Amino acid sequence: MAHAPSDDENFRRVSDYISEYIRENFLDGDPKGELEDDTPLLEWGVLNSLNTARLIAFIREELDVVVKPVEISAANFRDVRSIAAMVARGVRRAA
Fold it and tell me: What is the helix (H) or strand (E) element at residue 88, kind and residue range?
């Protein structure tokens, strides 16, 4: 009998999915393997206004989570970990 994934497992999956999207769409596949969960996406210039809008659309379309305008902040888009936490809150809100 399969078990339901834990919150930690779900968080890891979301984090991995977001990392993969960022690598493929904003970092040319990240050939140097530099993207970590705590990589400062804003400071490194990975997320600018256009890329943030694209990422928000990806989150809405692929993860079925609506990012509210009030959630679009440097704190929520600082790194992959922050983005995944915001998505997890959105999933809990929708449940």
Answer: helix 80-94
Dist CA 24 CA 4 (whole Å): 29
- Give 90's Cβ-side CA count (13 Å radius): 21
> Which range, of 3-12, 18-27, 34-43, averages the lowest pLDDT?
3-12
Residue 7 has pLDDT above 70, yes or no: yes
Average pLDDT, the chain: 91
What domains lie within the chain, and their CATH numbers?
Answer: 7-25+38-94 (1.10.1200.10)
Please tell me the distance from the alpha carbon of residue 53 to that of residue 73, in angstroms, as a whole number: 12
Cβ-contact 52, 86 below 8 angstroms:
no
